[in-house]
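testing teh design pipeline on a random one, pls ignore if ur not involved
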């Protein structure tokens, strides 16, 4: 008798799971959207982690190449200094000598 009851409940549980599965399948089909090929490709490119990783690695490679290339370019270093006191002394010296100062 117990075995018959357990089989009955097992069968009921299976039917319930089957019903839930069919119901969820129905609702998932009801809310799906149709995408064009271009939209599907774009969505895949935006959401696939492997593709995102590949894109980031490619960008990093390009940046490393740019840095390496820039190291081989000619470089110019320029330094400038301005000393206000030296400028004032220069102007006073010129005035004392009687020459005209143009700045």
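output:
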């Amino acid at each position: 008798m117990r075995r018959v009851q357990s089989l009955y409940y097992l069968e009921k549980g299976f039917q319930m799971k089957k019903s839930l599965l069919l119901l969820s399948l129905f609702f998932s089909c009801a809310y799906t959207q149709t995408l064009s090929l271009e939209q599907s490709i774009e969505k895949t490119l935006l959401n696939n982690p492997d593709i995102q990783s590949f894109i980031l690695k490619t960008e990093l490679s390009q940046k490393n190449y740019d840095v390496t290339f820039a190291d081989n370019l000619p470089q110019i270093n320029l330094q400038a200094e301005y000393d206000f006191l030296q400028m004032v002394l220069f102007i006073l010296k010129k005035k004392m000598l009687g020459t005209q100062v143009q700045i």
